[in-house]
Automatic annotation (TrEMBL):
Protein name (database record): HEPN AbiU2-like domain-containing protein
Amino acid sequence: MKIEDNKEYIELINSHHDNLKESMKVVNFLKVSESRLEMTEKLEHIFKYSEINIKYFSFLTSSFLDLLCTLKGLFNSESEWEDIYYSKSGFLTIYETINTYHFHQKEIKKIVDNDHPNLLDDYKKLNSFLKEYKSKYNHKTEIGPIRNKTAGHFDKNFTEYYELVKKLNKTDSIKAIESFLNFLKLLMYFINTMADLMKVRTEIDLDKSKREFYKNQNNG
């Protein structure tokens, strides 16, 4: 993912932030609607599915936004310490996003298996992409220590802290962040596809319910 200038960064950040705010409005709407409607089993499933989907997409969007801001900082940095600061921030976001991704996988996999088995191959490709990313950028041996000793926490031994941060390289950090943004884009597209498929299914179910309702009314 290559971004050429500040204007493009700002447009992307504002656009995704607007999407995030709209998504959270939908979550609030779902909660209010759920409390007012008489819930059938099918309707309850739709509401639960929609809330999980939107919250997960919102989490991905917030990570995407954080990394866009980090890249913008690296793009504009004029000192070595700025490079270190934004690199630490980027790797912290990547580490925590991966952890949260894995935390939700059991739930997401269940949704794919039950509601979208046709997307299983795409789901597996996403996991393969992430596995390759973690291997290429040394998730355990490099990103993990950066998070644990310089960003999420500060190591009590400053020498160890400093030895880690002085190894951070602006060009390498940008490559790692851009590559992870590509993964997030694919994952967000995947979650959107799931939402679109559920929307179609919901419309079909509602139409079927309406036809059955009117049929029963006429027979009565």
